Amino acid sequence: MRIELDVNGTKHELTVEPRTTLLDCLRDCLDLKGAHAGCEHGVCGACTVLFDGAAVRSCLMFAVQAEGSIITTIEGVTPAPGELSPVQDAFCETHGMQCGYCTPAMILAAHALLADNPQPTREQIVEAISGNICRCTGYTQIVEAIALAAERMRGANRPQA
Amino acid sequence: MKAYPFDYVRPRSLDEACSLLAGDDGARAIAGGQTLVPMMVMRLARPARLIDISRIAVLAYVRADEFGISIGATTPQGVVERNALVGAKVPLLARAIPHIGHAATRARGTVGGSLANADPAAELPLVAVTLDAVLSYRFGAATAEVPARDFFVGPMTTSLPAGGCLVNVGFPVWKGDRIGVGFREVSARRSDFAFAAAAAQVALGADGRCKRIAIGVGAVTDFPIRLASAERALIGSELRPEDVKAAVRDELDGHEMLADLHASSQYRRRAAVALAARAVADALCEAQTSRTDAH
Q: What's the CATH fold of domain A86-156?
């Protein structure tokens, strides 16, 4: 089937089998390897992308279901080549990653949370990433990273005195 | 983790979707797909054709009507979670939804999908049974309504005919003041499948005693059940925890409990009694402190 997807601000016309998941489509057709294939049945969260702004699991959708939607992957959150988003920066600074397998999904889950709630409580941060499994960090630095990013992103929008 | 090949159709109207579903044994409806897609990629489900009903606008809404509050079958759980009307009129539903999966699955997973899937451990079937919700479905051009207590007939099994399409679930709204709700469950990890769950809604009279009560338990039997005898025993009481426990225990004695590797039937029975007592205690506490204009 022919479908049209808006991925990271670029429109793509693609031909996919109906059984191709959005995850496989992003990785194999568009070479966006930042969406990670972990469990591939909706348990680990490593394949999280933003679907019309909401964090969703790209392994739990067929690409044909996403037709006409706006998708953002980790490759699409950087403001410019060579730069990092405030969330990515915060993950680096607080050591919010070790092996990195869960990281793109964690960062996208954080972006979805902060777009909706610029001042999340610790409990809300934990809830927002509760569907994303990390086997390295023990989560503490990830929560710290999201709190730090939230603080910075609020500051960035503060009117100057 | 790749599904068998299948055909994919996205009908524009409900009529078209219903006729496609009713006329094809190999067809299945898909909306959010948060259960169906993993079943398909694990090859536990093999529909020949998916009828995508997720973009049929007339199936996604939350509105007040003759049922109380009606929710369209393809309304995402995350939308209902944040809906102010649901929070004010069907607080038990609002309380239960955060227990369903995670934010990322609630963004796609739909109310009707969870009901039609009828997982014994699912929260929405439990709330529907506890509150006596009414489910409406289409079969071809025909429409039918079925109360939640007759909709769930076994694990992952409903009375929805093959080829039918769930369209609406109506939740009754309790009138009056001094109403409280409680929802409790135990699972291995946050938002995992529950081993036992309980829902309660309580209305108190002017004397502070129980005027009306609904108690349901889920994840312990083949499908969620409402504890009608326990409710009758508790009407007019002060809802003391020991009385609630005794009433729930008595009624559950007549039911066989599920058992699996994670939770034995004895454990599920104990947990269901304890959770029901806590859910009623939460509801009582909320009813005692609720403002008169809260509902």
A: DNA polymerase; domain 1 (1.10.150)
Considering just the CA atoms, what is the radius of gyration of chain B in Å? 19
DSSP B266: H
**Rounded CA separation A60/B54 (Å):** 14
**B43 reaches A (C-beta below 8 A):** no
Q: What is the pLDDT of residues B169-211, one digit of tens each?
A: 999 999 988 999 999 999 998 778 999 999 999 999 999 999 9
- Rounded to whole angstroms, the Cα distance separating B65 from B58 reads 15
Q: Where are the alpha helices (DSSP H) in A26-78?
A: none
Between the CA of residue A86 and those of A78, A104, A142, what are the distances in Å?
9, 13, 14
Handedness of CA A21, A129, B263, B256 (dihedral sign): negative
Q: How far apart, in whole angstroms, are the C-alpha atoms of residue B245 and residue B190?
A: 25
ipTM of the complex: 0.93
- For Cα atoms B176, B182, B187, give the angle at the middle one, nearest 5 degrees: 160
Provide the pLDDT for residue B295. Answer: 47
Give chain B's domains with CATH numbers. Answer: 7-52 (3.30.43.10), 57-171 (3.30.465.10), 179-289 (3.30.390.50)
CB contacts of B74 in chain A (<8 Å) are: none
Residue (of B136, B164, B163, B139) closest to B150 by Cα position: B136
Check: CB of residue A72 under 8 Å from CB of residue A50.
yes
Q: What is the pLDDT of residues B97-140, one digit of tens each?
A: 999 999 999 999 999 999 999 999 999 999 999 999 999 999 99
Is some CB atom of chain A closer than 8 A to the CB atom of B188? no
In A94-153, the residues whose Cβ lies within 8 Å of chain B are 109, 112, 127-128, 130-131
